[in-house]
Structure formats: structure tokens, C-alpha cells
Amino acid sequence: MKPLSHPAVDDLTVEGILHALSDPVRAAIFADIAQSACAQNCSNFLQVKERDIPKSTLSQHFRTLREAGLIRGERQGVEMQNTSRCAEIDRRFPGLIPAIMKAHQVQSGAKRGAGGQGRKRA
Questions:
Q1: I need a surface site. Which of 13, 32, 61, 116 has the fewest CB within 10 A?
Q2: CA-CA distance, 37 to 59, in Å (whole number)?
Q3: Chain segment 75-95, per-residue pLDDT in tens
Q4: Domain positions in the chain
Q5: Considering only the top CATH level, what class is 9-97?
């Protein structure tokens, strides 16, 4: 098997992080991993935001998150265990990840509160 590559913290960029999180499925995956106290298996995310995600698509999402430096993946047998690199990123870009996580929570709460109707006009 090909070894997984993880960028060095000094090679991470704000643009790369924001690009990786620009997809709503990747943002949801990262939020779950970042909030978890333990490693998350890829198969935990076969359904995200009430949508089934094909394994091939899920692999691409995890690769994008890993290459942006947001997660660290470790093979354990046939499973891939993923952890966040929030602490490392926070040392490089203080406050970035907490700000992104807060914005994600606000956005997720607003979408649930709208009942799928989108924005209400004043």
C-alpha cells in the first residue's frame, strides 16, 4: 500500500484550509472529527447530512482534508483512523480553527431552524 502523506505544519496555508472546507460534506466531516475525542473511522461517514456518500467519493473527501493538513489518517488493518490536527493548526494560525468551527455551528443551526425553507425575507 502506498504510504499516506501529511504536510508539515509549516507548509499549511489558510487558502488550502479554506478550500478544503469549502465543500459542505468535507466541512461536516471535519467538524465531526474535530469535535471527537477519539479517532474516527472513514466508514462512520458513509452518510453525511442525511445523504449517502459513495466510498470512492468519501476517499476523495478524506484525501482533500488530509492534504490540506486538517486531519491525520492512520491505517489500522483495513480501516483508516482519522484525527484532527487542530492543535497543530492553532499553533500556526491561532484562532483560525475555533472561528471556523463556530461559524460552522452557527450555519448548521440556522439551516436547521429554517426548516429547509432557506432565508426568510424581512
A1: 116
A2: 22
A3: 988 899 999 999 999 999 999
A4: 9-97
A5: mainly alpha
